Amino acid sequence: MTDDLQRDVGTPSGAPAAAALPPGAAPMSAQLTQVRVPLVEAAEALATPDEAGRLPIVLLPRTAFRIQNGLVAAGLLAFVVGLVFDLQLALRGGLLGIGVVLVILGVFRSFLVPVPEGSQAVLLRRGRFDRTLGPGNHVIPPWIIVSHLVTTREIPFDAPATEVPTSDDVRTNVDILLTFRIDAPERFVFTISAPDFDLVCQAACQDAIRLLVRGKDSDRILDLGQADAEQLRSVIGSALEPYGATVVRVVVTHVRPPLDFMLSRESRRLAAVQRAEEEERHALDVRRQADREDLERQRITARRSALELEAENEVARLERLETRLKDYPNAMRWDVGGQRLEIARALAANTRAMVQIGPGADVAASLLLHTVAETGDEPASVRPPEGPGAAAPPQRRPRRTAG
Q: Which residue, of 73, 144, 204, 292, has the greatest Cβ tally within 10 A?
């Protein structure tokens, strides 16, 4: 089984697995394999990965005919010995019975065809395709041959593409993961082998990725999304459909432009972010300055309104006061006289003050006269008027000295 597995897993005709890769790409190992084992070991073989961790997608029975040749030969030998040799009747009968049983077992087992779960069997009648069988145990005549067992599970396939140029000639590495399902096993096994299909799938993925990347510039290549994955699925599915395979989904797992390009893009993005931040700060400063100017303008307006209101209140107060003075002149004179009297009483308590009471006298004049009395000078502006109607000059009071 090991020799058959190693013989069937390799690429056909000695072709290298990297033949479908673009120049400069690293060689890739095959991802799709097929094995040759006995039909009774099919379930175990389809569920057992090889040393590289790959599960086979196609199984070829080691023998085309299902008749157990060993049992049939042993039964025929026992039957011939029982007929040819002169043996006792009991021994001859036993040999004949054993021979018949062995022949029946060898032939009866050939009618049972086990098909593992998750696979389909391709049947041949007289060397031509007859039909396919689903999972389960089936009773099939031995002259109908089981040629292949093909898995029906979704098969993952990794397809990296290196140094694919964009529309502005930036070399980019792109990696996609697709899953496909073999919906027509007979078309798949009679059209291509599993290792050859690996190369075809690689080539279809490389071509689809190249067309997709070539239609985008370097600024948009990092934004591959669901629409681009759907485009890849459609293009790759069209290439694999003649082989009976259907692409279920495609996922873009990795996009990596050159390191220098990424550093330049990062610096541009960082500069744009910094510029936007500076613009936001400048706008904030301008807004703050405008707010301060508006606030100062509002303060000036409020102060002006307060001054105008205060002036209006003062005008109204003076108008009312003037009206009252005109209406009540005697009350005004009485009020003024009373206030002068109070001032005179307050000054009388001061030993250094001189008080003058009479018409035309006021506190300021009295203070000036007090100053003149101390210095001996008498300015003309404070001399008492002369004439018959003039008031008598104020009397000088002697100073009081301490002690």
A: 204
